[in-house]
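Reminder to self: C-alpha cells first, then the designed residues, so the page reads top to bottom the way the pipeline ran.
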C-alpha cells in the first residue's frame, strides 16, 4: 500500500470514528450514563421535530388595536412639536375613543383656521379629519388614524410579532420552531421541551417587553377625591384597599412633592366554579368542600375591579391612566419564605414619552449597592435626546419605568439625564431567579419588543403516540427503500455493488452525524429527504460503474478503466449534485416548517453523497484493484 492510499484510509477511518462518536449521545438517550468527560465533549443529539416526538402547540391572539393606539400617541407628540415650532398655543389629546383619535384643542378659536390642509399635509396618508364631539367642536380640530393606514399598521404588527417570536425561540435554543399566521392569530409549534421548560419558554415568547417611560401626575385633584371616597367606603375596607401618601423633595430646589395612592394585597379566596373560571384558577384537584375553589386574586385586580364599580367617578380622564407597581415586603426573611405581594397605584399621563423602540442595546449587570441584578438600557441617538429633554422638563417629578404594563420603578428626576442610559433593577425574587429573569429580559429587549401584547388563546401538548406512529412508518419506508437498492446493486454489479452499498451506509452515517453536530431538527419530511439521498447515492454509483464498463469494453486494463471511469464521470455527477444543491438552498431560504426540514436534509445529503460516491467509493476500488497482481486481472462489475 503506497503512502497516499494509506493516509486516505486513515482519514476515512477517522471520519467514521468521529461520526460514530457523535451519534453515541443520540443512541444512548441518557447522557448521565456516559462518562463525564465524554458528555462535556460530545453532548449534542439529533433533535426530533414536532411530528416525530410531539411538543407544544399554542395559539396566540394579538391586541392589534393597541398598535393603532400607540401610533396615535406617537402622532400626538409629533403634532405638539409642530405646534411649538409654529408658536400656536394648543393642547393635543389622544382619547381612548374613537380608536386612533388625535384632537388638537386650541386656546384661541381664531387660530383654528391655521390648522388647515397645509398644516396637516405631513400626515396626509396617516390622518383623516372627523367630526368633533359637541363639547369640543368650537375650539378643536379632530382627526384619527385613517382606516387604510390602521389596516397597514395591524398587518405590520402581526408580521413583526411573528419575526420577534421566532427570534426569541431561536435565542432560547428551541430548534426549528414553526410560527405561522392564521387570520389575526399566530400559531406557534415548539418541538420537544420538557415540563420544566414549557412555562419559561412560553413566558419568554409572550412577554411583550414593551418598555415605556411615563410621567407621574402627583397630587392630582382626581386622586385626592378618590382617596376621600376610599377612606370612607366600607366596601374598600372589606377588600383590603387602603390609602397611603408619598412625599419627596428635589435635591437642588428643595421643592416638596406629595402624592396619594391606593394599595391592596393579593387575596386568597374560595369561589364558585363560574367565578373561579373567570379568574383562571379553576382546577378539579383543588376543589374544596362545598364546591368552592381556592383562588389568589392579585391586589392590582382588586383595585381595578373596585374603581370600575365606582363608575365615572372612579375612572381617569382620557389623558391619564392608573399604573401599578408590585411592592416587596420590608422584611427580607419574610420575602424569602413566602412573598406577600402588595400593589400600589400611580396616576400617570397616558401618553408614553419614550418607548423601547429607542433602545439600541441592553446588557445584564449587578447593582453594587443592593447586590441585585439589573439591566442597563442604552438609548439610540433619538432616544438619548428625547430622554434628556424629558428629564430636563420634569425635574422634581417622578418618572415611571414601565415594563409589560407593570411599573418597575418610579424614581424621582433630580436633574437632567443626558447620557442616554437607564437601568431596570430585578429586585423582587431570589437572586438566582432574578438573575435568570434579567437574562431573559436582555434577550427579549435585544430581539425587540413585541409590537402588541399577546394573549394565549389555547395551548396543547402534541402527544408522543402520533410521533411514534410517524417514526414507525418512516422506518418501514426507509428500510424497504434501502433493501431494494441493496438488492438491485448486488444483482446488477455483483461485488462492485457491495462497494456501492457500503458507501451508501457511510453516506447515511455521515448525514445523521452532521445533523447531531449542528443540531438540525429531523422531521418527517427530513426523513423523506434522507430516503431520497439514498436513491441519489446509488444513481451516482450507476453513472460511474457504467462508465467503467465502457472503458473495459474499449480494452483498457482494470486499473485504467477504474481511473478513467471515476475521472470522466466526476463532472456529470458533480453537475447533478450542484443542481440539487441549488434547489435545496432555495427551498431552505424561502420555505418554512416541513419544506425547510426537507431542504436541510437534502443539502446535507447532497454534500455527503458527493463525498461518498466519488471519494469513498474510489478509495475502496483502489484497495480492491490493488490486490490484483496483474494488469489483465478482471473486476466484478
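Designed residues (637 positions):
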Amino acid at each position: 500500500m503506497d503512502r497516499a492510499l494509506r493516509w486516505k484510509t486513515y482519514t476515512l477511518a477517522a471520519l467514521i470514528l468521529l461520526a460514530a462518536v457523535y451519534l453515541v449521545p443520540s443512541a444512548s438517550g441518557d447522557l448521565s450514563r456516559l462518562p463525564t468527560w465524554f458528555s462535556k465533549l460530545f453532548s449534542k443529539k439529533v433533535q426530533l421535530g414536532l411530528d416525530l416526538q410531539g411538543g407544544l402547540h399554542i395559539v396566540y391572539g394579538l391586541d392589534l388595536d393597541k398598535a393603532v393606539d400607540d401610533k396615535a400617541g406617537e402622532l400626538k407628540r409629533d403634532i405638539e412639536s409642530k405646534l411649538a415650532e409654529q408658536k400656536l398655543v394648543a393642547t393635543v389629546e389622544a382619547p381612548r375613543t374613537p380608536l386612533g383619535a388625535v384632537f388638537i384643542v386650541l386656546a384661541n378659536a381664531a387660530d383654528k383656521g391655521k390648522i388647515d390642509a397645509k398644516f396637516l399635509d405631513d400626515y396626509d396618508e396617516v390622518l383623516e379629519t372627523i367630526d368633533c364631539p359637541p363639547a369640543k367642536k368650537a375650539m378643536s380640530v379632530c382627526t384619527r388614524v385613517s382606516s387604510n393606514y390602521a389596516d397597514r399598521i395591524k398587518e405590520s404588527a402581526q408580521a413583526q410579532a411573528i419575526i420577534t417570536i421566532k427570534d426569541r425561540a431561536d435565542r432560547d435554543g428551541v430548534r426549528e420552531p414553526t410560527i405561522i399566521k392564521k387570520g389575526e392569530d399566530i400559531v406557534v409549534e415548539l418541538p420537544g421541551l420538557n415540563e420544566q421548560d414549557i412555562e419559561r419558554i412560553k413566558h419568554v415568547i409572550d412577554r411583550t417587553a414593551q418598555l415605556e417611560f411615563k410621567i407621574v401626575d402627583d397630587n392630582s385633584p382626581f386622586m385626592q377625591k378618590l382617596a376621600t371616597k376610599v377612606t370612607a367606603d366600607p366596601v374598600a375596607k372589606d377588600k383590603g384597599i387602603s390609602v397611603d401618601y408619598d412625599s419627596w423633595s428635589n435635591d437642588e430646589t428643595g421643592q416638596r412633592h406629595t402624592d396619594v395612592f391606593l394599595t391592596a394585597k393579593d387575596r386568597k379566596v374560595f369561589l364558585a366554579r363560574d367565578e373561579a373560571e373567570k379568574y383562571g384558577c379553576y382546577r378539579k384537584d383543588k376543589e374544596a368542600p362545598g364546591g368552592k375553589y381556592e383562588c389568589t386574586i392579585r391586589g392590582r385586580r382588586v383595585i381595578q375591579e373596585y374603581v370600575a364599580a365606582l363608575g365615572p367617578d372612579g375612572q381617569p380622564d382620557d389623558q391619564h391612566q392608573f399604573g401599578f407597581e408590585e411592592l416587596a415586603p420590608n422584611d427580607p426573611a419574610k420575602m424569602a419564605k413566602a412573598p406577600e405581594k402588595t400593589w400600589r397605584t400611580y396616576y400617570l399621563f397616558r401618553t408614553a414619552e419614550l418607548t423601547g423602540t429607542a433602545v439600541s442595546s441592553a446588557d445584564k449587570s449587578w447593582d453594587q449597592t443592593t447586590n441585585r441584578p439589573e439591566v442597563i438600557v442604552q438609548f439610540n441617538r433619538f432616544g438619548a435626546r428625547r430622554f434628556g429633554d424629558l428629564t430636563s422638563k420634569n425635574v422634581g417629578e417622578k418618572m415611571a419605568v414601565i415594563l409589560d404594563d407593570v411599573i418597575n420603578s418610579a424614581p424621582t428626576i433630580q436633574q437632567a439625564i443626558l447620557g442616554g442610559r437607564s437601568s431596570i433593577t430585578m429586585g423582587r425574587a431570589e437572586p438566582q431567579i432574578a438573575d435568570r429573569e434579567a437574562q431573559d429580559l436582555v434577550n427579549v429587549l435585544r430581539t425587540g419588543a413585541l409590537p402588541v401584547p399577546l394573549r394565549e388563546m389555547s395551548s396543547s401538548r402534541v402527544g408522543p403516540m402520533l410521533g411514534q406512529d410517524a417514526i414507525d412508518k418512516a422506518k418501514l419506508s426507509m428500510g424497504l427503500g434501502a433493501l431494494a437498492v441493496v438488492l438491485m446493486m448486488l444483482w446488477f454489479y455483483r461485488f462492485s455493488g457491495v462497494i456501492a452499498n457500503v458507501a451508501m451506509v457511510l453516506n447515511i452515517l455521515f448525514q445523521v452525524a452532521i445533523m447531531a453536530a449542528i443540531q438540525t431538527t429531523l422531521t418527517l419530511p427530513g426523513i423523506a429527504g434522507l430516503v431520497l439521498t439514498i436513491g441519489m447515492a446509488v444513481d451516482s454509483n450507476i453513472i460511474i460503474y457504467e462508465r467503467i464498463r465502457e472503458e473495459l469494453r474499449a480494452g483498457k486494463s482494470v486499473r485504467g478503466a477504474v481511473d478513467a471511469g471515476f475521472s470522466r464521470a466526476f463532472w456529470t455527477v458533480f453537475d447533478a449534485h450542484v443542481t440539487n444543491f441549488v434547489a435545496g438552498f432555495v427551498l431552505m431560504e424561502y420555505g418554512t416548517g416541513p419544506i425547510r426540514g426537507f431542504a436541510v436534509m437534502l443539502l446535507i445529503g447532497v454534500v455527503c453523497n458527493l463525498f461518498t460516491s466519488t471519494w469513498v467509493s474510489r478509495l475502496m476500488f483502489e484497495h480492491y484493484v490493488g490486490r490484483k497482481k496483474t494488469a489483465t486481472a478482471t473486476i466484478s462489475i
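The first helix runs from residue 3 to 28.
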